[in-house]
């Protein structure tokens, strides 16, 4: 991301009468927080804003109730078809927009804000910095460039994404700039303790039983420095838990000291498996995920597999060991 790109994006957003904003499918707090954080700033300036993400129906996770601005969200079928100005937040690749892709293609100006190293380069204005801790950190820079006082609502949304995408400020992407931003956001009056509780201490008993089931299946692959497990649609249905409610399970797996890489496979409704991988530092998982059409960061990435648990792990092991992937 260059200063020229940042300045140009700010100019476009200052002059826009209306802005359509989108984040990726199954949004996490960085995606939803960065989108709503920028949306609040634009609304405070008098801009008409509409936001969406490509889930239909657009079901939100429980923690989303903590974020102000949900009234700005519309279902994908009500999203503008040919927006004059469109902003995407936290999309590592174009296909992460799902059914909102045609709107992005038709947009006269497409501002692409993202921090994934595997970003595929979409957008007429690219605000992409793979060294940033989060997309929320990039949005904060953009808000500063636009000018005007940051609202409490923007600060809360950005703080949510900043805390979660840094693993509560544990990950290697955290810099002094990240911590200074967190301090600045906390100058606003919102309940940060309650926010953290909602994200990290709000699990139902059914979820905890599901964690037990997943851990009972845990397997080690020493030659690939890997631990892994999986959940099926039947597991989720029996527990009454949605796939998005198990996102934190990978953080339990990654604590295994015996392995560098942890992998969680979650079966989707179409039968394929969503694969989330995390590394302690010894493997570049953005490269590994890219081998299967996915992407992400060096230490955290993901992709989708149609090969079932055993076949998926067999192929992942080949990549982690530097071997060619079998068809």
Task: Explain the overall architecture.
The chain is an alpha/beta fold and 327 residues long. It folds into two domains: 3-200, inorganic pyrophosphatase (n-terminal core); 205-320, Diaminopimelate Epimerase, Chain A, domain 1, CATH 3.10.310. Helix content is 38%, strand content 17%. The protein is built from twelve helices and eleven strands. It has helices at 3-15, 29-44, 101-106, 135-146, 152-165, 176-185, 192-200, 205-216, 233-239, 249-253, 285-290, 308-320; strands at 18-23, 48-52, 85-89, 109-114, 125-128, 219-221, 226-231, 261-267, 273-279, 295-296, 300-305. Strands 6-7-8-9-11-10 form a six-stranded mixed beta sheet, sandwiched between helices. Helix 1 crosses helix 4, helix 2 (29-44) runs parallel beside helix 4 and helix 4 runs antiparallel to helix 5 (152-165). The radius of gyration is 19 Å and the shape is globular. The two termini are 37 Å apart. The relative contact order is 0.11.
